[in-house]
Amino acid sequence: MQLEESINNYLKLKKLKIIEIIQASFWKKTLILKVKDDRNYYIIKYISENSPLEIKKKFADEVEFYENNSIEFIPKYIYSNNFLIQMEYVDGITLRECIHNNLLTTSIIDNIVNKSIELYDEIPHTKDFEKNQFDNAYLHLNTLCSGGPFQTKTKKISLMNKIINKLIYFVLKFKLKRIVNNLDESKLKYNFVHGDLHYNNIIVKGNNIKIIDFENIFSIQGTYDFDLLYLYTIIEANVQLKEKLIDYMGKIILPKITNNNNDLLKICDIYRTAIHINSKYNRNYKQTLYSKIIVLYREFF
Prior knowledge:
301 residues; Phosphorylase Kinase, domain 1; globular
């Protein structure tokens, strides 16, 4: 993706040098750059004038969020205009890298969950979301079933596997709908969702964490509870072989996220099943078509 004149002019004006193109999306027509001046590193998120309207709206929402919120565990806002936002560069590794390099500890998990919950408490809830709208609950279910942040994109999946996966997804969605339609709304975290709270959007350095990527902040209806459950099940799925971490998460972290709400615990089980049938999830064990059929039978009946 070639740099447009507007971003080139900005880089020259601010005497910024591109160190790395972190992400380039051709269909969104966006860029995320790591840049540097004489003293510091920064992140620049750039959007083209030819980007789709939906992407422009999300960009404007994200800029508004960073402009109006100064919290220690989100990137510091530096500057923005109609086509870019400049923020502090967050040093560290993603939570995904932390897990895969066997660096995850109970204290890091605790800090991540505490900061994620604290994020909801500290953000002014100025956007009135519609009640009984649980879009992010279904979005997370679909993502966990179909690939999501942990998918192995090159993995080939047979047609029969795809059909079984889709059938299981519809059964899980039906079960999820029955639960969310009867949730006690007074106990839910309304008027804020992150929308994409997974382990690639959490940066870890020691026991310190930063939460990034707020482009879905106002575009997805729902409650923050589902974001927390989504993050929880992703972490849990990746520490299955670490007995100490699994025990800690089940006894300490899950009650903290759900407040022992039975309906939220049921939704957590549905998300776990979604990950279990995800053929693109790179596990240490091979999942057979027969095992998926057993899952389908168990969930349906």
